[in-house]
Each structure stands twice: as structure tokens, then as C-alpha cells.
Design a protein that fits this description.
Length: about 190
């Protein structure tokens, strides 16, 4: 199962919902969603703070089920918990967590994560890195679901990634847009550079 986490509070972005901000004429919350929709996951969900989010109609068209996180204000861990609840309900044996504010994520990188996950017989957490630090996107085997249900705060599943096998990606692929200034910098670049 693929879970796109899109219920963050965007505190560093100011008063606006950053996922609705335009990056190269397209809402930020749709870039990664569109890329990941091309991959062969059996289930795709978006964990959102509101079923009426401006991206919701497009997420649905892309094949995502929208799951509302009523506790989003308590931190990213609650979105992880929502994703795990859906994974358990669906009977899947692995969960790939991605962030909706990573517009340059590539299908090739996710395929590399999936290949590494298979090499470890689907029993090892596999995460991304560009600098030696583990980060999303990451894939978690079913035996991690219980620990994921007990996470707290805004660090998401970061503490579980300490034991992850790391798959390297270029820094720009793993860029997440957190501030208005970052978005402005990216909008000054030509798309695809």
C-alpha cells in the first residue's frame, strides 16, 4: 500500500495551505501524487486533513482513496497511524510512506526502494537518503505496524528509520517544500531542471 501524507499543518509556510500553492502552475499537493499514481501499488491512499481539500478531486481521479486524519493537529505521527490502520484493514504486508510536499519524487527512486525491500525478503525497513540521514519515502514491513501505531508527535516514523536500509537519491528528488521562500526559489527555476 502507498500512503501519501498530506495532513501536515504547514506551520513554516505561514497561514496558507502549502499543498494548494502553485509550483509551475500546478498545486504542490499534486506533483508527487501524479508521479506515484503511475506505480503498480494495489492500494493508494492520501491522508488528508479534510475530505474537501482543494486537491481531493484530483487525488481521487489519480486513483487515491482519501482518508481524513481528524487528529492532524497532533503531529505527523497521527497520519502515520491513519495509514497503518488502513494497511491493517486492507490486509497488506507492507506500507510505503511518502510526503505530499516532495514534488520532484521520481518513480525510478520508488522502484529502487521496492527492489531493495524485495532483496531483504520484505522484512527490513527501507528508506531514502541523500546525506546519510534516513528519510521518506520509506517502506515498512508488516512487523513494524504495531510500533508505528505508537508513534507520537511531529517526527512521524523517523525514530523507526534508524535501523533502515538506505537507498540513495539526489538531493533535489528528496526536496520537500516547507516555506514560501523555498517555493519561490523553485518557481524561478525552469520545470524539470
Amino acid at each position: 500500500m502507498l500512503a501519501l501524507l498530506a495532513a501536515g499543518q504547514s506551520r513554516r509556510f505561514g497561514n496558507n495551505d502549502k499543498l494548494t500553492a502553485l509550483l509551475h502552475s500546478k498545486m504542490l499537493g499534486l506533483h508527487a501524487a501524479a508521479t506515484l499514481a503511475q506505480l503498480p501499488f494495489n492500494h493508494r491512499i492520501v491522508i488528508a486533513s479534510d475530505s474537501n481539500h482543494p486537491c481531493a478531486a484530483d487525488w481521487s481521479v489519480l486513483g487515491y482513496d482519501i482518508i481524513v486524519n481528524e487528529r492532524a493537529d497532533r503531529g505527523q505521527a497521527t497520519s502515520v497511524q491513519c495509514a497503518v490502520e488502513q494497511a491493517l484493514a486492507s490486509g497488506v504486508t507492507a506500507l510505503c510512506l511518502c510526503l505530499a510536499d516532495m514534488p520532484y519524487m521520481t518513480g525510478q527512486h520508488i522502484k529502487m526502494l521496492l527492489q531493495s525491500f524485495e532483496v531483504f525478503d520484505r522484512k527490513q525497513i527501507v528508506a531514502s537518503t541523500c546525506d546519510g540521514n534516513a528519510m521518506p519515502p520509506a517502506i515498512f514491513p508488516v512487523d513494524q505496524f504495531e510500533a508505528m501505531q505508537h508513534l507520537q508527535g511531529d517526527q512521524g516514523a523517523r525514530k523507526l528509520l534508524k535501523t533502515a536500509h538506505l537507498v540513495r537519491a539526489e538531493q533535489d528528488i528528496l526536496l520537500d517544500i516547507d516555506t514560501v521562500e523555498m517555493l519561490e526559489i523553485e518557481n524561478r527555476k525552469s520545470p524539470g531542471t
